[in-house]
Every structure is written in C-alpha cells, then in structure tokens.
C-alpha cells in the first residue's frame, strides 16, 4: 500500500467520493470534502496530482471555494498537477482555472475512464518534470552568482557568503588567483540588499601605483597635468552598492592610510577637491597574498586589516576541490560551444584523465582558458588532451624562429604569472624586466591578468 501514489480527490458529493475512491485501484485515494480538509491533506500527503471540484461548501453552487483551493494548493506545492472538474456548461471557469495554473479539466458528469487517463498523464508529466528539475540541479550545480561546484568545501564557502550577504560587514576573500574570488564577490553583492546599486571592481595590482589613488578617489578638473575634467573615482561610483578591492595587498602604504580614513569616516575628497563627499559602500576585498606576514613586516596596516576583514573567507584552490575540474570543464565546454556555435559532444577519456590529474596552478581561470582554446581547436566532436594542451607531446616544429620566441616568451610569462599568483611587480621581477615592459608584453600577447 505504502508505495502507491497518492491521488487527492477534492469533492463534496458523497456518491462521487465513493465512486472515485473505488475507481482508482492503482492509487491511494485520499478524499477531502472542502477547502480546509483539502489543504490539510496536501500538507499531510503531499500528493502530486489532485482532482478538484470547483463547487465546494460553503459555496457548492459557485466556484469561489474551488478557485481559492486551487490557489492555495499551488502556493503550498507548486509542482502539484491539479485537474479541475468543470460543471455542465462551465467552460469559462475551466479555462480560468487553467489560466490560474491548473493542469487540465474534465467535464462532469464524470467519465471514470477518461478521468483515469487524464490522472495517469498528470502523474507521468509530474515525474518527467521532477526528473528534469533533478537533472538540471545536478547538471548545473550552480551556487550563488553562477558558481559551479560539486565540492563540499566550496559549497560551504557559498553558504557562508550567503549568510553574511545581507549584513554590511566587510568580507575578505583569501585565495589564489583564478579561484573565483571576483565571481564570489559579485554573488555576495547580488544576494545582498544592495543588488540594485552598482558593483564596482578594481584590481589594485593591475593599476600602476601612481594612478591607483585617482582611480579610487577620483579627481577635480585641473588637479594635475592631464586632469581635463572632473572624474569620479571607483569608490564614488559604487555609491549605495559594493566596492570590490581585488589584490588589496598591493595597495601602497600611503594609500592604505587614505583608504583607512575613508572607511572610518565614510567620506571622500577627490584629488584636488575640498568638498567632502559622503559615500555609502559595502567593502569586499580579495588577495592571494599572505596579509598576516605583510602585517608582521609592516607592509600592510593592521588597523586597515581589521576594517576590511570583519569576516574572512578562505577559497580552496581548484586542485583541492575533488570532481570540480571535470565538472567545470563540461560547464565551460557547453558555454563556449554555444557561444562559438560548435557542436561538441564532450571530452575524450584521455582528456578527462588529464583534466583530473593536472595540478591547475592557474585554477579555474586556467581551466576556462584551456577549454575555450580547445573548443576552437577540436577537429571532431570530442575534445582531446592535445586540444587542451595537456598532452606530453611538445615536439612539434614551430613555423619560424619568431614564432618559437613568441611561444617561449608567452610560456615564461604565463609560468611567472602563475607562480606569483599574477602579482605584476613580482612577475616583472621574476622575469627580470620592468613593470612597463611586462605591461607591453601582456598587451602584445593578449594575456589577461
Ligand atoms: N566555480 C566557478 N564556476 C564557474 N566559473 C568560475 C568559477 N570560478 C571561477 N570561474 C570563472 O573563472 C574565471 C576566474 O574567476 P575570478 O576572476 O572570479 O577569479 P579571481 O580569484 O578573482 O582571480 P584573480 O585573483 O586573478 O582576480 C572567471 O571567468 C570566472 O567567471
């Protein structure tokens, strides 16, 4: 008995109640004779399919109780398939019921066989929709802000961010480059009460030190040579919303003082300006650097740390999220295939094992880039390890010396970026070149940081 599906019959006519109860041997038929009893039964039995007579007491000749019941059932359990009984000539109410979310209707007097078919189809459709929902949930595995993950640690990170989203506490996201810090910061913003206001991100490491102050605080016309017109800084642009300071560890000390003052007083002065402008922003920061060591050696202010890190969230590297590389590879393959109009079906087994075993020093960004390139490169329907550039075979002859040099440059830059977690100053140092030269090369090779 227990594995039978429950069919809720909402009907006040006792004769019909009996008839319907015995007609459906395949289901456990639960009867309710008015709206209140119907709702009690919905809560108790959670039926997937309900047949509903619109004429219920205390309005057995009208439809008011029936429509109210329909609304309440769908509000309580939106996936319920409600089949509405329409009295003689009451086609209009039947159509109104469909418009109100009912699945189907049947004409009274009841034709048991016909109703039986409608009920069976309703159960089938319900199951199909449920299966689709389940697949979509598993398929997408998407968390806050479009984070794709199957990893428990990462899901905990998302839960934690959701929990603090609606408060105004400052959040510090700690994690290596490409682990999804910006995506999480955006997710936090979108789940917060500030979602309708701007989300403004600034990568403090990507902006030359001398420009960072004006980027953050803005400037008045004529404040310095080249200040042709008054310009708002990123802090002001984020008014009412969220300011995301990426690579906050790269902010030079004098600017840290200025930022701290803003966080204490919540007013800014543009460079060259005298007016104090109140700004209400929520601060989210991120860094791949070890700020505790920086605080100890005096290169990051402790008082600023306490302002910007009321809640600290540590984001695991991709290699520490079992299952995620393959899950994300599929996600990016679908995304890029549809963007580029390519009909790829998946990955070759060799590619999947290469994805699983690769150490992913550049984390999700590296995976995203490799899959993007592979979607362009793949010859057939499936992506191979070579398309991902994850195969051992690197013996191909370059076209000419220039191409060989370019490839070597590019590889050296990418390795240095990965090793320094994309810190521009350290990358330039590691490569023995100046910051401006590195910027030129990044531009020339179209390497994103
Ligand atoms: N879990 C994820 N699901 C889907 N896409 C992701 C996920 N994590 C990261 N991405 C994508 O990977 C790329 C890199 O992520 P993001 O820019 O958020 O990383 P980051 O940690 O802020 O990097 P950086 O420190 O270098 O700025 C983005 O295109 C982002 O959309």
TrEMBL record:
Keywords: Activator, ATP-binding, DNA-binding, Nucleotide-binding, Phosphoprotein, Transcription, Transcription regulation, Two-component regulatory system. Transmembrane segments: none annotated. It holds the Pfam family HTH_8. Residues 147-376 form the Sigma-54 factor interaction domain. The modification 4-aspartylphosphate is found at residue 53. GO terms for biological process: phosphorelay signal transduction system; regulation of DNA-templated transcription. InterPro entries: AAA+_ATPase, AAA_lid_NorR, CheY-like_superfamily, Homeodomain-like_sf, HTH_Fis, P-loop_NTPase, PEP-CTERM_resp_reg, Sig_transdc_resp-reg_receiver. One of its GO terms (molecular function) is sequence-specific DNA binding. Residues 6-123 form the Response regulatory domain. Coiled coil: none annotated. The keyword Zinc does not apply. It comes from the Bacteria. SMART domains: AAA, REC. NCBIfam families: PEP_resp_reg. This is PEP-CTERM-box response regulator transcription factor.
């Amino acid at each position: 008995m227990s594995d039978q599906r429950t069919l809720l019959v909402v009907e006040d006519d006792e004769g019909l109640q009996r008839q319907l109860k015995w007609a459906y041997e395949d289901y456990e038929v639960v009867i309710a004779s008015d709206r209140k009893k119907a709702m009690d039964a919905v809560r108790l039995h959670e039926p997937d399919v309900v047949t509903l007579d619109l004429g219920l007491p205390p309005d057995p000749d009208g439809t008011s109780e029936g429509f109210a019941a329909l609304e309440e059932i769908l509000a309580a359990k939106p996936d319920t398939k409600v089949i509405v009984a329409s009295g003689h000539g009451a086609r209009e109410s039947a159509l109104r019921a469909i418009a109100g979310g009912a699945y189907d209707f049947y004409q009274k007097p009841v034709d048991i066989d016909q109703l039986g078919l409608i009920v069976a189809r309703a159960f089938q459709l319900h199951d199909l929709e449920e299966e689709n929902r389940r697949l979509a949930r598993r398929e997408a595995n998407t968390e806050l802000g479009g984070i794709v993950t199957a990893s428990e640690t990462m899901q905990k990170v998302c839960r934690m961010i959701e929990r603090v989203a609606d408060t105004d506490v400052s959040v510090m996201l700690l994690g290596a480059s490409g682990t999804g810090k910006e995506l999480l910061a955006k997710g936090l913003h979108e789940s917060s009460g500030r979602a309708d206001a701007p989300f403004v991100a600034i990568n403090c490491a990507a902006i030359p030190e001398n420009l960072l102050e004006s980027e953050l605080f803005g400037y008045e016309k004529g404040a310095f040579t080249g200040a042709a017109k008054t310009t708002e800084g990123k802090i002001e642009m984020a008014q009412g919303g969220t300011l995301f300071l990426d690579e906050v560890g790269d902010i030079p000390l004098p600017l840290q003082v200025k930022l701290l003052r803003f966080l204490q007083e919540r007013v800014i002065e543009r460079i060259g300006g005298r007016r104090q402008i109140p700004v209400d922003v929520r601060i989210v920061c991120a860094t791949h650097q070890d700020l505790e060591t920086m605080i100890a050696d005096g290169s990051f202010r402790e008082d600023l740390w306490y302002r910007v890190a009321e809640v600290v969230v540590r984001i695991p590297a991709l290699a520490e999220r079992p299952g995620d590389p393959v899950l994300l590879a599929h996600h990016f393959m679908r995304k890029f295939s549809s963007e580029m109009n390519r009909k790829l079906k998946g990955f070759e087994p060799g590619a999947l094992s290469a994805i699983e075993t690769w150490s992913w020093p550049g984390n999700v960004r590296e995976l995203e880039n490799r899959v993007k390139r592979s979607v362009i490169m793949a010859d057939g329907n499936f992506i191979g390890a070579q398309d991902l550039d994850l195969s051992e075979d690197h013996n191909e002859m370059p076209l000419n010396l220039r191409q060989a040099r370019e490839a070597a440059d590019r590889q050296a830059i990418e390795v240095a970026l990965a090793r320094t977690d994309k810190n521009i100053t350290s990358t330039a140092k590691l490569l023995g070149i100046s910051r401006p030269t590195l910027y030129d090369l990044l531009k020339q090779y179209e390497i994103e940081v």
